[in-house]
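Progress report, Aim 2. The chain analyzed during this reporting quarter is listed below.
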Amino acid sequence: MQLFNPRSYDPAQFDDTTRRLLRATVDWFESRGKKALIDTYIDRAWYADFLEFAAKEGLFAEFLTPSSADPAKRWDTARIAELNEILGFYGLGYWYTWQVTILGLGPVWQSENEAVRARAAQLLSEGHVMAFGLSERSHGADIYSTDMVLTPDGEGGFTATGSKYYIGNGNVAGLVSVFGRRSDVEGPEGYVFFAADSRHEAYHLVKNVVNAQMYVSEFRLEEYPVRAEDVLHTGKAAFDAALNTVNVGKFNLCTASIGICEHAMYEAVTHAHNRVLYGKRVTEFAHVKRELTDAYARLVAMKLFSSRSVDYFRTASPEDRRYLLFNPMTKMKVTTEGEKVIDLMWDVIAAKGFEADTYFDKAAKDIRGLPKLEGTVHVNLALILKFMGNYLFNPAEFAPVPNRVDAADDEFLFRQGPARGLGAIRFHDWRTAYDTHAAVPNVARFREQADGLCALLLAHAPSAEQQQDLDFLLEIGQLFALVVYGQLVLEQAELTGLDGDVLDQIFDALVRDFSAHATELHGKSSTTEEQAAWALAHVRRPVADAERAARVWAKVEALSGAYEMQP
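Predicted structure tokens for the chain:
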């Protein structure tokens, strides 16, 4: 699998309009150059020039308008993921303004309010960005608690008063989807999602809450007039719209993380390979080869898992909601792998990773944010656990899911329905992907560990008391997540003809990761003697193969000088 390289990039899998816009985005950043990229980051300069480019090209309008709002456009997860990766490659701030526009549009495209839908489509065509007014300073993204209060005005509308915190694009958004509750209705029936305009006199911008190039706002509404025609959702539908919007939006974190790691890897490998210490290239040291090879294998796995997840998003339906497991996996697992990739490279380049004129310095800071957005790692791990029983033990039959890069509108994402029933979702047999690659030594070794997890859950399942111990359960969740991760990596490897050496190297890492989490489980205070014995019994060494490692290393070494952003 190839890393994204602006020098040779040609998204030939897409239609002409998509190819032109993706390539134009790459060309805009490349012509702008590295100095401007770095200077604006250091100066925390608002990225108005990027938004001007996006508006001129109609980038957001083309990619983020579903066909239900404009038959000439579509919401296509495959090309959205592609743009996530490109924007992450050049900087988190550029990705962030696009990401929060996606979140802001979620409640709109799920709404039956045609007036607001038309307004949003028009604003996008004019080059505006959007915002998602959900989180609050006191409650975070806890949508059960909101202090944004809507008081009936006696004329069919409301006045809204309250503040929102950590709201991207809140300084300039043409439309802000705001979540609140009615003052006169208790419980879930009182929830309301409505559309606000940051330019309105009753909309007060308080401040930027982060010390960064991006604008993450605190804003306050003071008796903001909410007309009946501004209301997007009420009652439980508003609650579902919030969760379903996050389902759509948090998927984007994985490909942003991939883009960040790719740019950083070109810099790190090029620096290390051309630096001489003690009479040797840095890349001749055994530990450096190991760390950079591990980083490369993990990055390829991130791309494989994320690409395959796109296919499940695009084929989703009321009868096939498997994407609801793979989605928190991309948010939790892929983004934390991104942190590992950066840390492995940073161990190699050391002080170089702090230098102001590098991209790596920015990547090392920004990569930390992605696991912490759209729900913490712990929240998403807890969510993943809901699927474990059916996934491991109760498979169902599904038609094969192909790679999906066709020019189709992913309209189901805006009619997901009630956000419940996760434990009842069925999956195809995870063992099939492992069986297909049983001849790969480390796939076979990891399969032993995966089968062992099933045996643990059948023979020594968490007790009622342990099920109340989230610290214990999260370690079980980490073990389970590795099985899911491996499955989609294998599926995508099969579909793309991934080099067998690279696949074996990826599972070398997964075997070690499973062993590490088994060791953590062994050390938990609430782990029983039987569970602890199981944990030690399932610590495995990867299958070593020096020749394979050398062949994979040659792929890493070839990244030296393969790309450098022009000055």
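The radius of gyration is 24 Å. The mean pLDDT is 96. These observations will guide the mutagenesis work planned for the next reporting period.
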